[in-house]
Prior knowledge:
Helix content: 25-40%
Radius of gyration: 22 Å
Number of helices: 15
Distance between the termini: 28 Å
Amino acid sequence: MTTVARRDTIIIGAGLSGLYAALHLKAAGQSVAVLEARDRVGGLTLSPHSPTLGRRIDLGGQWVSKGHRRMYGLVERYAVPVRRQFAMGERVCIHEDQAFRGPMGTIPGMSAADQAAYSQAFQTLYQVFDDLPANPWEGELAARLDRMTYDSWVREILPPGMAREALLRLPGAYYGILPEEVSALELIQKLRGCGGPRFMSDVETGGMSEHLWGAQAVSEGMARDLGDDVVLNAAARRLTWTDQAVDIDTDAGRFRARRVILACAPAMVQQIAFSPALPAPRRLLHQRFPNGRNSKAVVIYDRPFWRDKGLNGHVISTSGALTAALDIGGAEPTQGVMIALFSGKASFRVDPLDAAGRRHAVLAVLAQALGPEALTPLEFHIQVWADEDWSCGASSPFLVPGQLTRYGAALRAPVRPFHWAGTHMATEFRGYMEGALAAGEAAAGQVLAAPTA
């Protein structure tokens, strides 16, 4: 006879969102279990140990800002180190085969005419933020923007040139997607919900002003608090359900609950067998809700040599050489620590390569921006998130054109005993660690408000 572990609510996915939902439910008196397919918690945060530094580094999410109140609460609770983002000196912009340097807050190498066009385009973008209603899928403007790709919208408001290429980099920079893959409405409403690209890229007071050292420790702290209610190596394979109960068959046995929170990407939900099947509208939504691509390298040097040249290590590209690179070594480092992000278009420079090719590609672009010293690091790490069996790519799945206006009103609504979490379900700070927490909190609130009979 099969042994069944019974809980009030089961959460599938032990990333930030699922663990935070579990803490809320347990605090409210519910019995819970968090089922995780991997042999670790943390989802898209991953913090291995660096022998050179003698501490943890981050191959997944790590940036926070003071507006991330939930995340800061957990950072303080679990004593996770936080550091100011180093930004003293000039930044570099790679445009095709050239590298330009200039002050923070500018795009080095951009002509005065392109800079004026770029500023005007940003005004247009922020005006659309204001024009969209609270429910961004409603109204004529929403319908028009959802029919067109973000690529088409940018080409409509900007002529060819460096300014256009700079604006087209936003989908890759923030969500790991190509501008021709996503609807203008989907991308614009995601940017709006995160405070807009000015805030998101701000290394002084905004979305990149501080970073963690060992972000995975937040999930590990929540897992310790939950104790035996977190079950690893428990991939959910089949959900057999009625309105009264759900049986979850996993690699670690069978569980039963009244309600289930799926704190995983829609692509992962699609890999679970449901009996009976989910209603067709929800299945069709998941099919139109793919992941982007994001890869991250951490490169450690004997010293931050770029600072001797008046550079702060902040690198961007308008031509897809990389998404961004940043110096995260702190104000007075003993070693130089660079991270390099390759997402969206830039990910195709590294993702298809073998390990040696990836290393060569990352170091080559850092050398183009910072100098030949970048070719000889002490330590090199890279995480290609599209290679992760239980991630399916970047942190924030996106809706393809035409879908937000079709499914927006039902996006976060429960479907019978099923609820949805994950940073892609957040209405604020979507794609951030804070967004994951917000979505987990919202899903827990739905469960607690649901009828118990």
